[in-house]
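Put briefly, the fold is written as integer tokens. One such record reads:
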Amino acid sequence: MATEQIATAINAWDVAQRQFDLAAEQLHLPDGLRKVLREPQRELTVHFPVKMDDGTVEVFTGYRVQHNLGRGPAKGGIRYHQNVTLDEVKALAMWMTWKCAVVGIPFGGGKGGVIVDPKRLSLREVEGLTRRYATEISIIIGPERDIPAPDVNTNSQTMAWIMDTYSMNVGYTVPAVVTGKPIPLGGSEGRNEATAQGVVYTIIDAAKHLGMDLPKCRVVVQGFGNAGAIAAQLMSAQGSSIIAVSDSTGGIFKPEGLDIGAVLAWKQEHHTVCGLPGTKDISNEELLELDCDILIPAALENQITARNAGRIKARLIAEAANGPTTPEADEILYNNGKFLIPDILCNAGGVTVSYFEWVQDLDRDFWSIDQVNEKLHRIMTKAFASTLDMCLREKVNMRTAAYLLAVQRVADATSVRGLYP
């Protein structure tokens, strides 16, 4: 079975709830509090028409989910993908709640998605879809309520359209309604690189803990989108050898190490990493099981499962993607002595710099790239140290440690606020 088929066969919401249940049990949370935190606060489903270039009208389905608002407004990306489901969006919203909590930023978790393959639409059609979707979800988003951001198949242009649509509806410009915007519209320096930068900061800290010498490490990256490609570049700058990368079409392998600049140029020209001269084409499944030191899953959910976890050879796994590892696989990896940096910590650089962008927009005061990276480094290093301390103290894996920290923080906020009315 192909990796993508496995991903769709596993229910992400079931995975997210089971991960929460493990932490709730260990924290001895009261039953009532567990019931509150186990479900999203709001789920909005919208069906909206879009006029296509040929004059026909198509109706698309979209979602916006707010999991928990106890620590602040909802925060989370919007993805455009043909396999988007409400359960997937609910899982991603819950993961965002824990992600914001583990790095200590004052947001709750949200997420959005539209069932569409944007690669089959023209740019004008994507703009029309975006503006209509933004209008439909405008009843629950806003700079003090819920702040969307880019995710799979969305980008700074998508955010610009959403910001403009929201601003037109309220009658004045509202830069802080979304993050991940272009710089001229109030975007933050460093936002595009933030997820990958945060991943690499945590890898550096993990390597120190494990006694690994990064210039001697062989790195494999699954997913050569924004996070994966930039992570590959940053790891290469650390002196590591990137021996394999992949995208949705497949992967390439070169034991002596890839020239990441050449891979980027090839993908730009051919829209795939496959076929690069001097490399061997491999499948995404084969890539995960390569002999390497560091594995960076930066693609979709449920890539490392009970089926393949026992064949993972990397000593250090850094989850740049959301939910790439199932609970069963977590246990196998931990028992095999693998050190995994969980998604809610590892890829939290993106939401952290989104928080910086939101603050800058509200204050109308913008920071330099050095200020952004210095603040990001400080937050990621502190969060990693707190998680590692919990991991060693409680003798649990890093994911459970991160969940214990995050769930406790959200539970405390929810308990202190109490139930309304």
